[in-house]
Amino acid sequence: MQSKVSPRLAEPLAPEILELIFRPRIERELALGIDDLCAVNEAHLVMLARTGLVEPAVASDLAEALSGIRRDGEDVIPRDPAREDGYFNFEALLMARAGAETGGRLHLARSRNDINATLDRLAMRRLVLDLVEKIIALRRALLRRAEEFADTIMPGYTHMQPAQPTTFGFYLTGIAQALARDALRLFHAFHAANSSPLGACAFAGTSFPIDRQLVAELLGFDRVHLHAQDAVASRDYAWDAAVAVLGLAANWGRFAQDMYIWGTQEFGLVRFPDSIAGTSSIMPQKKNPVAVEYLKASSGEVIGGLTATFAILKGGHFSHAGDTGRSSLAPLWPTLRLAGNALTITRLVAEKIEPCVETMRQRAGAGFSTATDLADCLVREGRLSFRQAHHIVADLVRNALERGLKPDEIEYGDALAAIERELGHPLDISEAAIMQALDPGRSITARRSAGAASPDEIRRMIDTAHAEIDSDQAKLDALHAQLASARERLDEQLVQLRQSNRASSN
């Protein structure tokens, strides 16, 4: 028995090839529906008709058959592994409906190489825009909570040690700011993906007078991917998306790690409501932070999937092959969908997390987190160099720890003694200045430099961030409108093709 797709192969395919390579490939390719495959065929048909490469009657019959397949959906597509992939199974159905000769004419001046390269770019566009939309929703949620807690004092950490007082709103604003750059990188990835490989054929173009620009416009692409071999060989636009998602996964993973630690009994800075928690099968008292654990794990899964994509691509030649053209992106699609799911869960956590306001305030006063403010005070009021002031406060903190004093137990005399130990002489500085510098609330209010943690500056940054989100939303809406407009134009062209034959037959 010969191959079902070509008489070049005289032997039947081995069962292992059918079941382990081709059947999974077909299921993977058809898993998300056939809209993109229909669109690629429809745009190519319109171009063939407009350039006179197929006769009007043939074009009309093909348009009717394609319309019927789109209407009936992916369930009507056979999944015969002997036909190798989703495209050949689609073509088999088309030929069954339109007739073998008519159906076979649609493959003029194209190859599975440029078809699959185009399908990958269409899928990438859609997934990237979905990620941007979810990032925007997450940023809005973070900023709403940031505004709510702009005045909620908490300890800030470096090296996981108490560092300086901050606010919960300041922290959340920072996460939103990092996500804004992730959105920017994804917009760039969309632009990189939005060029049309169709018409490149196998890799060297065609002798037929096709119109690649028309096909690109009908599919909503910005431009033709000009060099035919580069068009089918390259997947570097996927690298752009992968790098963007790597950063995105790191950002939601770091946010999740903070929430995970802060939610422990030892830190006690945040609480997880029951709606985003789980429980134990044996320990009745347990409430487990399942949402943030999911986020911590998913960031690792995403990084693993993207690493697999890079590993497959790097070993291929600069041409089309099964590994670079098909397998290389196979780990990427579920990875991008997982990233979308993780963004949804991150938004839910951001909306639901409950800061323990009183504990945060108490912890901000502990751990000597206002030490830098006291050093700044000595510079400002005592005209010392910062290094001198730094040494004085370090001596004060060490001495307090040795004596078992808490930060709020330090007195004016303790500070004066540290000054004299380090300088060898007293310093004229008021008690009010010293004690105010040790107050976490005053510490935060005093930080008024651009991007600092004072509530007024936080609210200014929130306003700026909202404006940036509105701008990103407008860009996203414009891209959706561009694709929708192209789809409408393609639909109009298909209607004209179907009606032209009916009119001529009447």
Automatic annotation (TrEMBL):
Pathway: Amino-acid biosynthesis; L-arginine biosynthesis; L-arginine from L-ornithine and carbamoyl phosphate: step 3/3. It is found in: Cytoplasm. GO terms for biological process: L-arginine biosynthetic process via ornithine. It catalyses: 2-(N(omega)-L-arginino)succinate = fumarate + L-arginine. Its main location: cytoplasm. One of its GO terms (cellular component) is cytosol. The keyword Cell wall biogenesis/degradation does not apply. Residues 100-304 form the Fumarate lyase N-terminal domain. Pfam families: ASL_C2, Lyase_1. It comes from the Bacteria. Residues 368-444 form the Argininosuccinate lyase C-terminal domain. GO terms for molecular function: argininosuccinate lyase activity. Keywords: Amino-acid biosynthesis, Arginine biosynthesis, Coiled coil, Cytoplasm, Lyase. Belongs to the lyase 1 family. Argininosuccinate lyase subfamily. HAMAP family: Arg_succ_lyase. This is Argininosuccinate lyase.
